[in-house]
Amino acid sequence: MSKLRVAVIGAHGRIGSEAVRAVEAADDLDLVAALGRGDRLDALTEAGVQVAVDLTHPDAVMGNLEFAVGHGIHAVIGTTGWTPERLATLEGWLAASPGTGALVAPNFSIGAVLTMQFAQQAARWFESVEVIELHHDNKADAPSGTATRTAQLIAAAREQAGRPPQHDPTTHGLEGARGAAVDGVPVHSVRLRGLLAHQEVLFGGTGETLTIRHDSLHHSSFMPGILLAVRTVPTVPGLTFGLEHFLTGTDGLRGA
Ligand SMILES: NC(=O)C1=CN([C@@H]2O[C@H](COP(=O)(O)OP(=O)(O)OC[C@H]3O[C@@H](n4cnc5c(N)ncnc54)[C@H](OP(=O)(O)O)[C@@H]3O)[C@@H](O)[C@H]2O)C=CC1
Ligand SMILES: O=C(O)C1=N[C@H](C(=O)O)C[C@H](O)C1
């Protein structure tokens, strides 16, 4: 069977360089392009790329995707900074390129995906909830894509359960002290040298709290999810948001 022809865009970055190694090590995948800043996107078509993995920057990702999707190249996107408007634009490009698939994944690690699902499950039962995300000190976006998605899922679950908006009695204090409200859920962003990617979801009820914590300790934590996404996205046309939609069995979640 012929190997899937894969490109990594952002190939010299923290996660991109790890993705290059993971794709190279996979028997069924062929890394045919590894693009960094300033490289021409034409290299994707010249190399006959079938799936492009974007791990760049919120300022770069839309241009990369317009080119890739416009040329019928499936896309796996880990780059953050997604807004409803950006997703709608990507959906428009996909609609004009029938058969092309794109997965936008706020987080490729299984633990982070489960954290979001557990948080969604817990949300209906607790009065208070706050999200704390902690990342390395070079991260461009805040809150993280994962924390934003987690808060959105929590807010939707609370609304579905008929929970009223959270009570916040704060009337005095410094701007920002209560974090950023994502759909009404406070999200606090810590940036600290030495960290990689971590998140705590804190729930509070009568006389009890529940904390769900996830830690990505190394960029290898994202690789089984990226490889699963690369292998799956050509079979799922249109836009998919969240790796959970590709997690149909544990057998797909392997390294090389
Ligand atoms: N979904 C997930 O599971 C994960 C997502 N991420 C996300 O991935 C993105 C990258 O993170 P990280 O690796 O830490 O960041 P880095 O800054 O380490 O890497 C980004 C790389 O992309 C390069 N780049 C910038 N613009 C372009 C462009 N137009 N074309 C090609 N390359 C470009 C940068 O080059 P230069 O150095 O010259 O700027 C850099 O080498 C972030 O948005 C981050 O949030 C990260 C980890 C997991
Ligand atoms: O920038 C990072 O490092 C990460 N970005 C993603 C996010 O914003 O959620 C995923 C993970 O947290 C690592």
Automatic annotation (TrEMBL):
Active-site residues, as the UniProt record annotates them: H135 (proton donor/acceptor), K139 (proton donor)
Binding site for (S)-2,3,4,5-tetrahydrodipicolinate: H136, G145, T146
Dihydrodipicolinate reductase C-terminal domain mapped to chain residues: 111-247
UniProt keyword annotations, A-Z: Amino-acid biosynthesis, Cytoplasm, Diaminopimelate biosynthesis, Lysine biosynthesis, NAD, NADP, Oxidoreductase
Cross-referenced PROSITE patterns: DAPB
Pathway: Amino-acid biosynthesis; L-lysine biosynthesis via DAP pathway; (S)-tetrahydrodipicolinate from L-aspartate: step 4/4
UniProt-listed Enzyme Commission number(s): 1.17.1.8
Primary localisation category: cytoplasm
Subcellular location: Cytoplasm
Key word Amino-acid biosynthesis present: yes
Main function: Catalyzes the conversion of 4-hydroxy-tetrahydrodipicolinate (HTPA) to tetrahydrodipicolinate.
Protein name in UniProt: 4-hydroxy-tetrahydrodipicolinate reductase
Organism from which the protein derives: Actinacidiphila acidipaludis
Phylogenetic lineage: Bacteria, Bacillati, Actinomycetota, Actinomycetes, Kitasatosporales
Gene: dapB
